[in-house]
Amino acid sequence: MADTGTCESCGSSGEELVVVRRLYLTPETWDTAASIREADFELWCFVCRTMYPHQEPGEYDPAELPPGMTA
């Protein structure tokens, strides 16, 4: 579901926003395995969804959303 308002990633306003789950990626190094950490749900604009790692609606369980937030 798309919404309008302010993007919680870049702060742009007036754009169509989508609820996504932010992902933090840690690349592999010689002594550390690569990892992906799931973070909070946020409203993101199209540009942020094309540039930053995240999960789109359908890639996460909607039951995990905080109260009042809909996908």
Overall description:
This protein is mainly beta and 71 residues long. The chain has one domain. 8% of the residues lie in helices and 44% in strands. Strands 1, 2, 3 and 4 form a four-stranded antiparallel beta sheet that branches. β2 and β3 form a beta hairpin. It is globular, with a radius of gyration of 14 Å. The model has no long low-confidence stretch (mean pLDDT 89).
Q: Give, in order, the helices and strands.
A: EEEHE
Classify the beta-strand content into a percent band: 35-45%
Number of helices, where a helix is a run of at least 4 consecutive DSSP H or I residues: 1
- Pick out the low-confidence regions: none
Q: What's the number of structural domains?
A: 1
* Main pleated-sheet profile: 4 strands, antiparallel
Shape: globular
Structural class: mainly beta
Tell me, rounded to a whole number, the average pLDDT: 89
Summarize the topology.
Blueprint: E1 2-6, E2 13-26, E3 35-44, H1 46-51, E4 54-55
Antiparallel strand pairs: 1-2, 2-3, 2-4
Summarize the structure.
The chain is mainly beta.
Q: What are its keywords?
A:
71 residues; 4-stranded antiparallel β-sheet; 1 helix; globular
